[in-house]
Amino acid sequence: MDIASILNKFSKLNIVVVGDIMLDHYIMGDATRISPEAPVPVVSVACDKYVPGGAANVANNFTGLGVPTNLIGSYCEDPESKLLSEVLHQRNITLSPLGKQAGATTIVKTRVVVQRQQLCRIDREAKPAAYALDHLLESPEFVEIISKADAVLFSDYAKGVVNDPLLSAIHQISSRLDKKPLLIVDPKPKRHLNLAGMTLMTPNRSEALQMAGLDGSPSADFDDAFVTKAIFDKYNPEKLVITLGADGMLLGENQKIIGRIATEAREVFDVSGAGDTVVAVLTAALASGESLETAAALANRAAGIVVSHLGTAPISKEELLALDAQ
Fold first, then answer.
1. Phi, psi of 322 (to 5 degrees)
2. In angstroms, rounded to a whole number, what is the distance separating the alpha carbons of residues 244 and 205?
3. What residues have CB less than 8 Å from 144, skipping those under 6 apart?
4. What is the pLDDT of residues 267-285, one digit of tens each?
5. Catalytic (active site) residue 276
């Protein structure tokens, strides 16, 4: 696999990420004593770190790969959105103003990290209905953005942006185009959305089991043939990549299993954001004309890199090229 040749194609793409944008906030510090107020550690804060989260982290991965990307998600004019805008600007990510609306509190996930271990997570968000983008789905600006895309990636974190009206609107826009964009979804089965007819679906092990109508618990058996057939029968995606953690990836295309590929993770420190990296690399490679096998192999390498980082971290062209040179 000629990684440099594949990466060179990425700069010519136009990708649209639609989904739940978040701001990931890390409070880094140390804890050496227990609070006299309650049996909890007292954290002495060393620093605060802000990075793109959710769909914004997917866009961050595209930027790291050199892929021009439009990010569409719901947010409002609050202090957190200003922080998020600064973080995105620093990374050359274009946040569409179309998603700005009153009431859609910018989603913030705050993680308290002590000596490289996460102590707790604090979430700030509104109810899912506040994040729906139904008001802009027929706007000329939205139609134009989708019409110019090589691929549209639905980044669903079950916060409300990705819903049936959004999916239907983009399918309808796509159906009118001579050059149709790839439609790719990282699904959340508990949403019970109409995900039929996607170019690619990228569920993890638990999500795939749920999509197949089975128990999604970690201890549940995973029958490759049954799970893939159930997903193909119900959703009819063109391509299917099921991420299986330490067991690598299971690939399917045109109603058939292609096979499994083993994980390339050498040291797993933090899996946060690894799924975002996988779906971003798969999308960029497929949009560049690569086969599913080549796209998955590249995504597998990228995942092996990002899980060795602490916290939500994107992949970069330089890391992939350095790995290829070893």
1. -65, -40
2. 5
3. none
4. 555 455 678 889 999 999 9
5. yes
Q: How confident is the model at residue 326, as a pLDDT?
A: 57
pTM over 0.70: yes
Side-chain-facing half-sphere of 216: CA atoms under 13 Å: 14
Distance CA 18, CA 37 (A): 44
Q: State the virtual CA torsion across 80, 146, 166, 241 in degrees, nearest 10.
A: -90
Q: What integer pLDDT is reported at residue 267 of this predicted model? A: 55
Place of tokens 């050059």: 179
Set 20, 150, 186, 276: catalytic member: 276
Q: Are 200 and 285 in contact (CB under 8 A)?
A: no
CA 6 to chain CA mean position, Å? 21
Burial of 7 (0-12, 13-18, 19+ CB in 10 A): buried
CA 61 to centroid of chain Cα atoms: 9
User: If we measure between CA atoms, which residue out of 140, 152, 138 comes closest to residue 16?
Assistant: 152
- For residue 183, give the nearest of 193, 196, 315, 206 by alpha carbon: 196
What is the reported pLDDT for 182? 98
pLDDT at 94: 85
Task: Give residue-wise pLDDT tens across range 93-136.
Answer: 889 999 998 888 999 999 999 988 899 999 999 999 999 999 89
**Helix 3-10 and helix 317-325, axial crossing angle in degrees, nearest 10:** 170
Can you tell me the distance from the alpha carbon of 31 to that of 17, in angstroms, rounded to the nearest whole number?
A: 39
From 18-32, 134-148, 273-287, 312-326, the region with the lowest mean pLDDT:
312-326
User: In CATH, which superfamily holds the domain spanning 3-28+44-325?
Assistant: Ribokinase (3.40.1190.20)
HSE-up (13 A, CA, CB side) for residue 190: 7
